[in-house]
Specification:
Blueprint: H1 8-22, H2 33-44, H3 62-78, H4 82-86, E1 88-91, E2 94-97, H5 109-114, E3 128-132, H6 138-146, E4 151-156, H7 159-172, E5 177-181, E6 193-198, H8 205-209, H9 231-239, E7 244-253, H10 258-264, E8 271-275, E9 278-286, H11 287-292, H12 294-308
Parallel strand pairs: 3-4, 3-6, 4-5, 6-7
Antiparallel strand pairs: 1-2, 7-9, 8-9
Length: about 325
């Protein structure tokens, strides 16, 4: 086999075949074996991720081949997401450090960031923005990078995730972002924002328990969110009016929990975003609408808080 694999394209094709044969799951930035084999191959060869295809027939040395095959073997045997093997994930056109302290960056909100949140923002003047459940910091840092006149906060409960976010802040040389350790809005009293963006935990208990092995390498704190995936989202909706400016916007990703949210709050106006690949469970809500329906949202959110509290607390 060693003599048969001679070029970059040989290795990529071989890796993709091995990945498909092994039944790997792809959902951490790539959705197919060929793209993931390409990522791992180029990383091992210290080549740019957007290398021109004209180099596909470039020959490789035996030592380089061993490095690439070693990564392929770990991907197959350990089921580690490729971004954790390379230590890098691309989000909104930017390179982020990625490791098990936070979820691998992969939100479709990247497309909204690169589009300047248009047409949703319209002519609103954004001075302050918040990334709630910031994780690796990818959304906050990307917003700050593309909008240097914005003041962006990133909040997360996990101290480990925030350490990674600070490393990405330094990596991308942004100067207009601040990270805060906070359980949702708890450590942001009195803070108000023109735009709140959140990619919170929204995976149901049943789905979390059944996730493929690749997801076991990610912190469960960033995934599990109750029986219908809405335990965290309802808290975000409930308290958003306290932290949005009068004409502020909330952008929130709920993924597969979209159907459950619409069924639970059919009266709340939510604009579901159409991405280049279709609808992906991200909605936009106006502050005024969240205020109008706050009583109903509060009842739903508070009922879950009581249900999940330890016995004797209430």
């Amino acid at each position: 086999m060693s003599q048969e694999l001679q070029t970059i394209i040989d290795l990529i094709r071989y890796g993709a075949s091995r990945f498909n044969a092994a039944g790997l799951t792809f959902g951490h930035g790539f959705d197919n074996a060929l793209d993931e084999a390409t990522q791992l191959t180029l990383h091992a060869l210290h080549l740019p991720h957007d290398l021109s295809p004209v180099y596909g027939n470039a020959r490789i040395t035996e030592a380089e081949k061993e490095d690439v095959l070693g990564l392929f073997l770990r991907r197959i045997e350990e089921r580690v997401p490729a971004a954790y093997l390379t230590g890098e994930a691309w989000f909104a056109g930017l390179s982020f450090k990625s490791d098990p302290r936070a979820l691998v960056p992969r939100s479709p909100i990247a497309e909204m960031i690169e589009a300047g949140f248009q047409p949703w923002l319209g002519d609103r003047d954004v001075r302050r923005a918040l990334d709630l459940c910031t994780g690796s910091g990818c959304i906050a840092i990307a917003m700050a990078h593309y909008n240097p006149d914005w003041h962006v906060d990133g909040a997360d409960l996990s101290v480990d995730a925030l350490a990674l976010a600070h490393e990405n802040e330094a990596r991308l040389l942004v100067r207009n972002v601040r990270f805060v350790q906070s359980d949702l809005y708890s450590n942001l009293p009195g803070e108000r924002y023109d735009l709140i963006v959140s990619n919170p935990p929204y995976v149901t208990n049943a789905e979390t328990d059944a996730l493929p092995r690749e997801y076991a390498h990610e912190p469960e704190l960033g995934l599990r969110a109750g029986d219908d995936g809405l335990d965290i989202v309802l808290q975000i909706l409930r308290d958003a009016p306290l932290h949005l400016t009068e004409d502020g916007l909330l952008v929130c990703e709920v993924g597969e929990a979209e159907r459950a949210l619409v069924a639970l709050l059919p009266e709340l106006p939510m604009l579901w975003v159409e991405f280049k690949v279709g609808q992906m469970g991200v909605f936009v809500a106006e502050c005024a609408d969240l205020i109008e329906h706050n009583a109903r949202i509060t009842r739903l959110a508070d009922a879950r808080a009581v249900k999940s509290a330890p016995a004797g607390l209430f």
